[in-house]
Design goal:
By secondary structure, this protein is α/β, with parallel strands linked by helices. It is elongated and about 170 Å long. It has eleven helices and 37 strands. Strand 15, helix 5 and strand 16 form a beta-alpha-beta unit.
Length: 688
């Protein structure tokens, strides 16, 4: 309990000061007249003034408050490497034990993890939020347990007490990381792009001149090459396919380095074709010829070379060739010299007439086996003696003609496997009448009967479920066969038409190996840290997907079928970084945020950023590896750090529980005292 004297004047302050002035004037007059009782008059005036001032004693019942020490523990990703988790636990135990011996002191512990997204360590933000929740007058000290690698030092708050740093890490720590400093977002297929990489060492790294760099594209077999340490390397890369190419660069983990989380980097480059080169060979004019031409010419990215054989060898009428306004078919140039320049060759109702010798057709077969693509749009000639099947191309074509040609109406159907194949899946929804029975599109009126080998895939069927559209892979290339030349009826809108352009577009892009039309694929569509894992397959079911985390731990996920041949699941990734997915058949790599997050750009513990802040409060930086520290109390303004100890400043904070006010003297006592003094002054002066 404490007491203090307070005044509560009975008059307004202006009048009170006026009374004080009159009393002083009267006292001065008495002194000037040399009255022997002037001092008694002065005391009487003072008593009256005291009565008017109404003095009282105010007593407070105070309850002392504890001092608060803030302990901020950094548990971000960089604090989970090496022996830092153990150091964190040891530092917390040390601080708790020391403060338990300090009277009237309590501990507030705040932990922080990784910042949202790739914000890194937001230590100052966490400290600011913690201080905002506590009275500043009770903060006796702040202790930060961290590796010093924070990313928001500019948000440091005003510090009301000594702020110490207990630094994790070991003096001999070292780390090696891989940095991709320059990588394009797009690249043209067939052209080299240059990436800039650098391998750098941090801390007390052993002397090493070079390391092996492993390069993998889309999880394929990696290529390794030695690269120097500490130098920028220009690496030329040629993308293998269109669409998104995931390039993974990895250096091996060395003995003794802190972490391998920054030993990998992932670059995603979208491969685009400069131009798609297509050769269309029409065996004879027919209504569907314009359909193929319109489809290919409508795409500005397609370079189309189109030849129509208008004058076959049997139509010799004696007119000299130099008088005909026709272009001679450049067979040698197209099928021997420049065949590899084309991405796709289409034979539209082509029949053998001696224009293309067998050696040219055999060259086309080799072109397919080496990665090319051939599409056959067949008419009645495919089942005749002049069929292109009865040539060296027959060994790679996915349908052997039986010589039967059906000339009757039928509605094309998508087969069961076609419902799951990317070329034909979902075509039903594009029909003119999607809500009706069947596909809801118009009929065709011709079908060539063929026998399909087991390895080929029939995605559309016609009369009595006979094959209509057949796909197959030959070596590195692809072939397809359409056993009807009536697709143009859909383009003309006959009986409502059908999705002819979309079907032919998908077919052409599948043959040119566009990634989005692969039958067997596994990929991820990220949104923040949420993964939509998608598996496309021709099988009726698929296995679980094993997700390997950036730290090497694994999670097994089951996928559910959302549409024929398409299986998906949503999964919230626990952190950003590089993830690998594998279902036993297909693999995929995805980087959420950077493959080496901001937390792993600098992994060697350092107090460089925190030292100015710590020193401004008179505190210090202590390495946890040096052992435990003791905690002492120091006066405000004194140094708060020394060899093996840190200091806190007791605040002496309290809260008032009760207040009582007691007048110094009752009013009558003041009047009695003043009266006695006045009478005494009168008697003194009267005796004189």
């Amino acid at each position: 309990m404490t007491g203090s004297l307070i005044l509560d004047p009975l008059l307004p302050m202006v009048l009170f000061y006026g009374v004080v002035g009159l009393a002083a004037l009267a006292l001065g007059l008495a002194i000037w007249r040399r009255l022997p009782g002037w001092w008694l008059r002065g005391l009487a005036g003072l008593a009256l003034l005291a009565a008017l001032a109404n003095p009282a004693i105010q007593q407070e019942d105070r309850e002392p408050l504890t001092d608060i020490v803030m302990l901020v523990v950094d548990q971000s990703a960089s604090q989970r490497i090496g022996d830092r988790p153990t150091q964190n636990a040891a530092a917390i135990a040390n601080i708790e034990a020391e403060l338990a011996r300090q009277p009237n002191t309590e501990l507030r512990t705040v932990t922080l993890g990784d910042g949202e997204g790739d914000a890194g360590t937001t230590l100052m933000t966490a400290l600011s939020e913690a201080l905002a929740e506590e009275p500043q007058g009770r903060i006796a000290g702040i202790i930060l347990v961290t590796d010093g690698r924070l990313h928001d030092i500019e948000r440091a708050p005003r510090l009301p007490a000594p702020t110490h740093t207990l630094l994790t890490g070991q003096p001999d720590d070292w780390d090696r990381r891989l940095v991709v400093s320059n990588a394009p977002a797009f690249a043209i297929l067939g052209e080299q792009v240059s990436l800039t990489l650098r391998v750098e060492d941090q801390g007390q790294a052993p002397a090493t001149d070079s390391v092996l760099l492993s390069i993998s594209i889309d999880g394929d077999e990696p290529l390794t090459l030695p690269v120097p340490i500490g130098q920028d390397i220009e690496l030329p890369i040629e993308l293998p396919h269109g669409g998104m190419n995931v390039l993974q660069f990895t250096i091996p983990e060395a003995d003794g380095e802190l972490t391998n989380r920054n030993n990998s980097a992932v670059v995603q480059i979208n491969g685009v074709r400069d131009r798609l080169r297509v050769l269309l060979v029409s065996g004879e004019p027919h209504p569907g010829e314009r359909t193929w031409r319109n489809l290919l010419k409508s795409d500005s990215a397609v370079d189309l070379v189109h030849f129509t054989i208008l004058r076959p060898p049997e139509k010799q009428d004696g007119v000299p060739v130099n008088e005909l306004s026709l272009i001679a078919f450049p067979t040698r140039e197209l099928f021997l010299e420049k065949i590899n320049d084309f991405d796709l060759i289409i034979f539209d109702r082509y029949r053998r007439r001696g224009i293309l010798p067998s050696e040219y057709l055999d060259n086309i077969r080799q072109y397919v086996e080496q990665g090319g693509a051939v599409l056959i749009s067949s008419g009645p000639e495919y089942g005749a003696a002049e069929s292109i099947y009865r040539s060296p191309l027959g060994t790679i074509l996915p349908g052997a003609p039986t010589a039967r040609v059906f000339e009757e109406g039928f509605t094309p159907q998508i087969t069961d496997i076609g419902q799951r194949h990317p070329v034909t899946e979902g075509l039903d929804a594009l029909s003119p009448n999607p809500d009706g029975d069947g596909p809801g599109w118009g009929r065709w009126f011709r079908l060539i009967d063929v026998l399909v080998p087991e390895e080929a895939t029939t995605v559309m069927s016609g009369i009595d479920n006979r094959p209509l559209l057949i796909l197959n892979r030959i070596g590195e290339g692809r072939v397809s066969l359409m056993t009807s030349d009536q697709s143009w009826l859909w383009d003309r809108g006959y009986e409502g038409g059908g999705p002819q352009l979309e079907l032919l577009r998908r077919l052409a892009h599948w043959m040119m190996k566009e990634p989005e039309l692969e039958e067997e694929s596994l990929w991820v569509e990220p949104a923040g840290q949420t993964m939509r894992i998608i598996r496309r397959t021709l099988d009726l079911d698929t296995g679980d997907v094993t997700v390997t985390h950036p730290d090497g731990t694994e999670t097994v996920l089951s996928l559910e079928e959302v549409s024929p041949g398409r299986f998906e699941t949503l999964w919230e990734a626990p952190e950003i970084g590089l993830y690998r997915l594998d279902d036993g058949e297909e693999t995929s790599v995805i980087a959420l945020g950077p493959s080496a997050p901001r937390e792993f750009e600098q992994t060697i513990a350092s107090a460089t950023l925190l030292e100015p802040l710590v020193e401004s409060t008179g505190a210090g930086v202590k390495a946890i590896s040096d052992g435990d520290v003791s905690i002492r109390t120091v006066r405000e303004g004194r140094p708060a750090s020394g060899r093996g100890w840190i200091g806190i400043t007791p605040r002496g904070a309290y809260q008032t529980a009760d207040i009582s006010i007691t007048p110094l003297l009752p009013a009558w006592a003041w009047l009695l005292l003043a009266s006695i003094l006045i009478v005494g002054a009168w008697l003194r002066e009267g005796r004189r």
